[in-house]
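The protein record quoted in full:

***
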Amino acid sequence: MTGRQKQPHPTPKSRVLDKAEVEQVLAASPTPDPVVSYETLSDAYLLDGDQCLLVFDDGTGRLYESRAQMLAAMAAIPNQQ
C-alpha cells in the first residue's frame, strides 16, 4: 500500500455524569443546543466556555469539554446509508 494513511480524528475529551450530577448542571438553567440535540438524538445544552452536556433518556449524561471537538469528531464518522 502506498501513500499516507488518513489519521483517525481524535476522540473528544468527555466524562460520564450520573443522574445527580446532571440535575446539578441543569439547575443552573443552561441554554438548550438544538443543533447538537438533533445530531445526537438526545437533549443537549451549552455550558460555560465551549462545553456541551448531553442528557440521555435514563437521566444520565456525558459532559464534553469542547462542543466544537465533539461536532468535528461526529462529522468525521462516515454516514451509514
Residues 14-75 form one domain. Residues 67-75 form the longest helix (9 residues).
